[in-house]
Structure formats: structure tokens, C-alpha cells
Amino acid sequence: MDHGLLFDARARVLADLQARHQATAAAVSVLEDAVSQRQWWAEQWPEGEQYVAGLVAQDVQDALFETVGRWPLCVSCGDRAPQHALYIQPDLGGPDPVWICEESGDVIAPLGGL
Questions:
Q1: Are the C-beta atoms of 31 and 17 separated by less than 8 Å?
Q2: Whole-number pLDDT of residue 80
Q3: Which of 30, 50, 95, 102 maximizes the CB count within 10 A of its CB?
Q4: Quick check: pTM over 0.90?
């Protein structure tokens, strides 16, 4: 297992949490749990290492939905659409995951680039 990929995934998701003012202690704890779980997953399926970053982002997104609601929210659509979230594409999380607007389908930013 390439631990650099885990550190990269953590850094990218943390950057997006900070960009949207969600880098609370609880959210960072969720992130640490997601990284730990995906480390085990990647050790079981080494060919899947390229998907770790996007999967960590999806794990954090799912966990935050249960506690704080949708994250990250789309700010690109403004008043043209009701409040909605971004999601990671491709569905499996990689390689090269990006945030996609739930409403327009537009690429908003690469993971870590919000």
C-alpha cells in the first residue's frame, strides 16, 4: 500500500473541508476514520489504490450528511437552483476525481480544489 496516496487523499479532502468552512473537529475525525478504513480496503485490493482519494471524499460526504447535512454545497449555481450538493465523479472515485454539480452536471473543481 502506497501511504503517500492516503496522505494525498487526506490532504485533498481536508482542503475541500476548509474551503467550505467545514473543517471542524468532528469533520476531521470523520476524515481520519475514512482514511483508516480505506487503507484497509486498499490493502485488500491493491489495484484499487488509484480510487482511494475519491472514495475517502465520498465516505466523508456520506458521514457528514448524517450529522451536518449536505457537503459540499454548490455555490456556482447561485439563485438559479435550490440548494444542492456536489458529488464525486467518477462514481468509484478515481482516477482523477472531480466535484460535479448535482443540478447542472458541470465539473466544478478537482478534488482538493474547491
A1: yes
A2: 79
A3: 30
A4: yes
